[in-house]
Write a structure and sequence with these properties.
The complex is a heterodimer of chains A (about 800) and B (about 170). Chain A folds into three domains: about 180 residues, Aldehyde oxidase/xanthine dehydrogenase, a/b hammerhead (Aldehyde Oxidoreductase, domain 3, Alpha-Beta Complex); about 325 residues, Aldehyde oxidase/xanthine dehydrogenase, molybdopterin binding domain (Aldehyde Oxidoreductase, domain 4, 2-Layer Sandwich); about 140 residues, Aldehyde oxidase/xanthine dehydrogenase, molybdopterin binding domain (Aldehyde Oxidoreductase, domain 4, 2-Layer Sandwich). In chain A, the strands form twelve sheets. In chain A, strands 3-7-1-16-13-14-15 form a seven-stranded mixed β-sheet, sandwiched between helices. In chain A, strand 36 and strand 37 form a beta hairpin. Chain A has 19 helices and 38 strands. By secondary structure, chain A is an alpha+beta fold. In chain A, helix 10 runs parallel beside helix 18, helix 15 crosses helix 16 and helix 17 crosses helix 18. By secondary structure, chain B is an alpha+beta fold. Chain B has two domains: about 80 residues, Beta-grasp domain (Ubiquitin-like (UB roll)); about 70 residues, Orthogonal Bundle (DNA polymerase, domain 1). A five-stranded mixed β-sheet of chain B has the order 2-1-5-3-4, with helices on one face. In chain B, a hairpin with a 2-residue loop joins strand 3 and strand 4. Chain B is globular and about 55 Å long. Chain B starts with a strand and ends in a 9-residue tail after the last helix. The relative contact order of chain B is 0.15. The chains are: A alpha+beta (about 800), B alpha+beta (about 170). Chains A and B meet through helix 2 and helix 17 of A and helix 1, helix 2, helix 3, helix 4 and helix 5 of B.
């Protein structure tokens, strides 16, 4: 073995020992989770703790004539019953939403959606609390309700929000009708209309991204404990953004923020459901302040699906204009957005439709216009970004369905049309017509790799043969090939684009190296299953050369973690991941000065080598980070502050733009409508990859949620505003049996503005997956003249398509 | 409400308790016995997060009254580790194959897989997928859960485990 080989081998061994970026490090979290030792909110048991439960409205729209709590209060074990009358003097019967509206905590004069919170019963145990909800007598006068958002602004529509009926200037500008929330327009309308007026080819379709729900397996819950003597409130809860919750609680309760301790323990999945503030959180807090004992609130599944934040419900009239040979010239979209009874969107952007203006997708579309109207209906309020940045799933669905419809009209191959219109690698950074600067991308390479791997050409040939066979009556099976080439926009975000209640959307990391060279680091984000305790440690390990196993990551305690805006919109890696790298680099810079002092050389004479600083040209003269850590506390250079720690609050200069090429092969039985996914191939480019095992896991999970949304999951209402199927009996969550097998792949195009080049990945598979499934279904029926088939594509609906097309004779 | 006296074995330990007749087994385990590993995800028996083993059967403890467990032998996730405290083959399999993310479904999933492997020590992928169909996971998409169970089966059987190629 020669010297260089020895050096390389030594370096490789030291690198491997770090378990840093790029390795499939096994998760730290799993040791406790596999032993049932996770600590979730409902696991918490405090002395004297009481339980709260809600009395909910059976009506979608009704006036409350009276509420009589006397029978409930008389039940042994019941301690208190709160109604709006109790909250009103405290100014807590309404709370602000993240979208600039207010939302009822407990209904005052009217209820506006089924299962709305009317009273909060507090009792000694959860069984008694539940019993007592049945004993609260509420007299209602039913009112006509609005379920169809297209009727919301009818001249004779009943006015839903009497509390703001005279306030015709909303949080986002003038309102056109008392049931109107906002109108938002972006792009060049005149230029867009002109292109459409003169275009060779246009398509126009109403694309509905239907109402659904993130439904993490753990519902929303909280435990509030108010110490009357100290005047301090401790609030445990299922919070994706614990610091924001602390600020909100302070603002609405008047308690000083430093006397509020918010703790988000282990969280059983979030997917956007746990970003917002809910009535249950507020009522547990009020209950504890009033009674001076801890109060727990735990949602049941029906409450979760029918009250705490739906997602989507976007009705998108989508148009493309193109030349005869398939060059897209313009895009025009109008969205009618059903926000339910209160505009409680968990939207951190400055615009009421979030990042919907990413709807020009992966294509170089020079001219575009987008208009969104938000309206109130008698449905649960929301919505949330279900495993995506705000409205990105909707935007990607619109463009990816639209290009398929255009390809169909042009008689062009859908992949070829996409490639023809892709933004070219040399165009990055790319300015989109609707205002975004795409940081980086190489779409052509990704698409080619995906098409080669899936065998695209052969699949189209097979499909052609199957279609002929179907026409000849030799098969009853339809074959669909779904494509989606998505560009996401994640990592909210730069303060010019985003804020929450006026707080800029930075995120943070604080890293502290102990004298013995082990580390504790805290971030302003909060994992709900993404594996932050594992991956942040990998970033630090690579940056400062201390093994990941010697680094503890802590999140979710607002007393100890630096202020951050939380985890959603795939922002942890783009924002807090960047903060982590920057904080680590501050430590490294100080460590270099200490090492120079120890080695009696100039700082500039040192170079970094995996886990140590060594003297250039003298590799045997070095100090490891562990030795430097000791020296930082023991003998720092003269005039240098002892210790070795750093904090960084990172405001991203831009969003990141992950992308991917997805292909789905589906076989559908026309007689039963049963669709089987034969193959699903997902190529993701999320820039630098921190832990490939975790990335793959995120992709699997996101695809499964996309499969659910596209193929069956829906929150539906009947004409009276009754929510249909708000339980796992009816709400489609795929089991291991229906879930397809996922094939994953990747390319790597690092983000040029991110310290480690990472872009975020957790939501890409959901965003890219939904249109891919829908395109596969639509592609299967396209040659039969089916037109656009709306989601969700469950067997019942697909059977109806077959029926409509006369295929069942 | 009048309480019933029950005697049962939980994770090898004899337990006596007074419970209301309507107390669900999941609440009894979590709140009276402080065994918080099993979780409640749906309250309707669909999600399986509350799965425990009762007399050699997988049961959904949110659909079982505590009084029904009188005289029974119960195993929960807290009783799944090896006697020396190390992770059992299934627990290890879930960690090695990244068969979990948020961890909420994991205790129920492991208990279900435990019973599956007792009844079918070398299941095919299809048999595993059907065998865990009563347990929902929102995070993993099941691919790695299947691998985790295959890993455990191989380890228990002393056969080589080969991760299936993508």
């Amino acid at each position: 073995m020669n010297d260089q080989t020895k050096i390389d081998q030594d370096r490789a061994e030291r690198t491997e020992k770090l378990q840093g970026m790029g390795c499939k490090r096994k998760r730290v979290e799993d040791v406790r989770f596999t032993q049932g030792k996770g600590s979730y909110v409902d696991d918490l048991k405090l002395p004297g703790m009481l339980f709260g439960d809600f009395v909910r409205s059976p009506h979608a729209h009704a006036r409350i004539k009276s509420i009589d709590t006397s029978r409930a209060k008389a039940l042994p074990g019941v301690v208190a019953v709160l109604t709006a009358a109790d909250l009103k003097p405290l100014g807590l019967h309404y709370m602000p939403t993240l979208a600039g509206d207010v939302q009822a905590v407990l209904a005052e004069e009217k209820v506006l959606f089924q299962n709305q919170e009317v009273a909060f019963v507090i009792a000694e145990d959860r069984y008694i609390a539940s019993d007592a909800t049945e004993l609260v007598d509420v007299e209602y006068e039913a009112l006509p309700c609005i379920v169809d958002p297209f009727r919301s602004m009818d001249p004779d529509a009943p006015i839903l929000r009497e509390d703001i009926k005279d306030k015709m200037e909303g949080a986002h500008g003038p309102r056109k009708h008392p049931n109107h929330i906002f109108e938002w327009q972006i792009g060049d309308k005149e230029a867009t209309d002109a292109v459409f007026a003169n275009a060779d080819v246009t398509i126009k379709e109403m694309l509905v991204d239907h109402r659904t729900h993130p439904s993490p397996l753990e519902t929303c819950q909280s435990v509030a404990s108010f110490d009357k003597v100290k005047g301090e409130l401790t609030l445990w809860g299922t919070f994706q953004a614990p610091h924001v919750i602390r600020t909100v609680v302070s603002l609405i309760s008047g308690l000083p923020e430093h006397k509020i301790h918010v703790i988000a323990p282990d969280i059983g999945g979030g997917f956007g459901n746990k970003v917002g503030a809910y009535a249950g959180y507020v009522c547990s807090v009020v209950g504890s302040i009033v009674l001076g004992v801890p109060v727990k609130w735990v949602e049941d599944r029906m409450e979760n699906l029918s009250t705490t934040s739906f997602a989507r419900d976007y009705h998108m009239t989508t148009e493309l204009a193109a030349t005869k040979d398939g060059k897209i010239q313009a895009m025009r979209v109008h969205v009618l957005a059903d926000h339910g009874a209160f505009d409680a969107c968990a939207d951190p952007s400055k615009w009421p439709a979030g990042f919907m203006n990413i709807c020009t997708g992966s294509y170089d579309i020079p001219t575009a216009h987008l208009a969104v109207d938000g309206v109130y209906t008698n449905k649960a309020s929301g919505g949330v970004a279900y495993r995506c940045s705000f409205r990105v799933t909707e935007a990607v669905f619109a463009i990816e369905r639209a290009v398929e419809l255009l390809a169909q009209k042009l008689g062009m191959d859908a992949a070829e049309l996409r490639i023809k219109n892709f933004i070219k690698p040399e165009q990055f950074p790319y300015q989109s017509a609707l205002g975004w600067e795409y940081d980086s991308g190489d779409y052509h390479t990704a698409m080619k790799k995906a098409m080669d791997t899936i065998g695209y050409k052969e699949l189209r040939e097979e499909q052609g043969k199957k279609r002929e066979a179907f026409k000849r009556g030799e098969t009853r099976e339809l074959m669909g090939i779904g494509i989606s080439f998505f560009t996401e926009i994640v990592g909210a975000g730069p303060s010019k684009n985003c804020d929450i209640l006026g707080i800029a959307m930075f995120d943070s990391a604080e890293i502290r190296i102990h004298p013995t060279g082990s580390v504790i680091a805290r971030m302003g984000t909060k994992s709900q299953g993404q594996g932050h305790e594992t991956t942040y440690a990998q970033i630090i390990a690579t940056e400062i050369g201390i093994p990941a196993d010697d680094i503890m990551i802590e999140e979710g305690n607002t007393d100890t973690a630096p202020y951050g805006l939380g985890t959603y919109g795939s922002r942890s890696t783009p924002v807090a991941g960047a903060a982590t790298a920057v904080a680590a680099r501050k430590i490294k810079a100080k460590a270099q000065m200490i090492a120079a002092h120890m080695l009696e050389v100039h700082e500039g004479d040192l170079e970094w080598d995996v886990d140590r600083f060594r003297v250039k040209g003298l590799p045997e003269k070095f100090k490891t980070m562990k030795e430097i850590a000791w020296a930082a506390y023991n003998a720092p250079p003269p005039n240098m502050e002892p210790g070795l720690e750093a904090v960084n609050y990172y405001e991203p200069p831009n969003m990141t733009y992950p992308f991917g090429a997805y292909f789905c092969v589906m076989d559908i039985d026309v007689d039963t409508g049963v669709a089987k996914t034969r193959r699903f191939y997902a190529l993701d480019d999320c820039g630098t990859r921190i832990n490939p095992m975790i990335i793959e896991g995120q992709v699997h999970g996101g695809l499964t949620e996309a499969f659910a949304c596209a193929m069956g999951q829906e929150i539906r209402y009947d004409e009276h505003g009754n929510v249909m199927g708000a339980s796992f009996m009816d709400f489609f969550l795929p089991t291991a049996v229906e879930t397809p097998h996922w094939e994953t792949d990747h390319t790597v195009t690092p983000s040029p503005h991110h310290p480690i080049g990472a872009k975020g990945v957790g939501e890409s598979p959901h965003v890219g997956g939904v249109p891919c499934f829908s395109n596969a279904v639509n592609d299967a029926y396209a040659f039969l003249g089916a037109g656009h088939i709306q989601m969700p594509h469950d067997a019942w609906r697909l059977w109806q398509v077959g029926q409509k097309l006369g295929l069942h004779n | 409400m009048a309480k019933s006296h029950i005697e049962l074995t939980i994770n090898g330990k004899k337990v006596e308790a007074l419970v209301e007749p309507r107390t669900l087994l999941i609440h009894f385990l979590r709140e009276q016995q402080n065994l918080t590993g099993a979780h409640i995800g749906c309250d309707t028996g669909h999600c399986g997060a509350c799965t425990v083993e009762m007399d050699d059967m997988s049961v959904k403890s949110c659909m079982t009254f505590a009084v029904q467990a009188n005289g029974a032998n119960i195993t929960t996730i807290e009783g799944m580790a090896n006697p020396d405290g190390t992770l059992s083959a299934l627990q290890e399999g879930f960690r090695m194959m990244h068969g979990l993310q948020c961890g909420f479904c994991t205790p129920g999933m492991i208990l279900r897989a435990h019973r599956l492997l007792r009844e079918n020590p070398a299941p095919t992928e299809d048999e595993i997928r059907n065998g865990i169909a009563g347990n929902l996971c929102r995070c993993t998409g099941y691919v790695n859960i299947v691998k985790a169970i295959q890993y455990a089966a191989a380890k228990i059987n002393g056969t080589p485990f080969q991760e299936a190629a993508e």
